[in-house]
Design brief:
single chain, alpha+beta, about 190 residues
Length: about 190
């Protein structure tokens, strides 16, 4: 397709100095096994509390388990997420204040440029870890993930602009490279699929 000029950004959590949210066990095990796929139908409003493992400051983005973002109702209202791309799973702190777990449900398996990315493979030749992703195209989504470790969320310029304009804390954005896969390579891949 047409090369899209907008950047793909990787969300990275800032844990130092900030409070760390900890959700009740049932919620945690649901997230550990199913985060990234639809969860709303089996979700209940789980309780969570902030721990001072890393620090005592409030951020705008806090991260469950170090990688799953939660946001307040106020921050949530700044975004206009496509419901097909993301679920907002309600949770509450001890005083009944509502937050949402961001659950990105759009997973793109074809967007990684395996040739250009830095990848670690296991002994069977399967991808075990993406050291440095390079994308072949832009999925035209505000938020998406890829089905490989480490578990990361990728967002587009619009997301980043909202975050930067609001000077939100607790989150940094890493720009990721794009390099189109050659036409022949694509053709061969399609034939073998």
């Amino acid at each position: 397709g047409m090369m899209n000029s907008s950047t793909i950004w990787e969300i990275s959590s800032v844990l130092d100095n900030f409070l760390l949210p900890e959700i009740e066990k049932d919620g945690e095990s649901l997230l550990e096994s199913n985060w990234g796929s639809p969860l709303l139908n089996q979700w209940k409003v789980f309780k969570f509390k902030f721990q001072k493992n890393y620090g005592e400051q409030k951020a705008d983005f806090h991260f469950l388990l170090g990688y799953i973002p939660i946001i307040s109702v106020n921050i949530c209202s700044k975004f206009n997420f496509e419901s097909s791309d993301v679920e907002l799973l309600p949770i509450e702190n001890i005083s009944g204040e509502r937050f949402f777990v961001i659950n990105p449900c759009f997973c793109d398996i074809h967007i990684l440029n395996n040739k250009k990315s830095k990848i670690e493979y296991d002994s069977d030749g399967n991808i075990s870890w993406i050291l440095e992703p390079v994308f072949s195209d832009n999925p035209q989504r505000a938020i998406f993930k890829i089905p490989h470790m480490p578990t990361k969320i990728y967002v587009d310029d619009s997301f980043v602009n909202i975050a930067k304009n609001n000077k939100w804390k607790g989150i940094v954005f890493i720009p990721r490279k794009k390099k189109q896969i050659s036409f022949i390579h694509n053709l061969l891949k399609r034939i073998h699929e």
